[in-house]
Amino acid sequence: MIAAAGSGERLGAGGPKAFVKIAGRPLLAWVIDAFRGAESIGAIVVAAPPGTEERVAAEFGVEAVRGGEHRSESVRAALELVGDEIAVAHDAARPLVTPALIDLAVARLAESADADAVVAAAPVTDTIKEAGAGGVVERTLDRSRLWAVQTPQAFRTGALRRALEGDVSGATDDAMLVERAGGRVLVCEAPAENIKVTTPLDLSLATELLRARA
Ligand code: C5P
Fold first, then answer.
1. Mutate-to-test residue for ligand 1 from 71, 153, 196, highest number of ligand atoms within 8 A of CB
2. Which domain holds residue 82?
3. Is the C-beta atom of 62 inside 6 A of ligand 1?
4. 128 occurs within a structural domain
5. Which residues lie closer than 8 Å to 163 by C-beta, 6 or more apart?
6. Residue 170 Cα to ligand 1 middle (Å)
7. Full-model pTM
8. pLDDT tens across 137-154, in order?
9. Is pLDDT above 90 for 10?
């Protein structure tokens, strides 16, 4: 399930982010290629920007559904087409994902019988502080326990379906909904270079990284 229905406002590209070209191809094309290369993936569903479902299906040769107003609503729409035991959610905005990382998340979940989800994540390298009004620092978190969470995120489909019931508008990823529902979520270490393209700076970095890889 590829969440591709974001507006791309922060990128300022003047249209949906999924279609923005990076190293010569749309963001979405890089992501679809990685999923096609993953052995653990049987079918791909894209939650497309509303009104572009037909274009996405024709241009990229995948199933496409109308994305929702919020990210997890887009995933919920894509999940309706999933009949498998394990479902993987991924941001279209992470073009540096690799088949190996997708397969790793799925394999970890498959071998962890008591887990409901496995999320790709990188150890945090900055010191993270929590600050309140006026920028006054309230505490410094123990960095050795912190992970910057990415996608892909692999789920037991039933657990994700239950977690996505009700209001999901405040969720910044799907795993937090599974956690909230009492589910067990594991992190699996992923490369920090699997960045999310949000700002023009991210776009430049991701372009360089994709070019270097090629
Ligand atoms: O907004 P954010 O950067 O967290 O978006 C992460 C991913 O979720 C992006 O790939 C974006 O296209 C997708 N998204 C979506 N539907 C929304 C909002 C975001 O599929 N309503």
1. 71
2. 2-121+149-213
3. no
4. no
5. 174, 177, 178, 180, 181, 183
6. 12
7. 0.96
8. 999 999 999 999 999 999
9. no
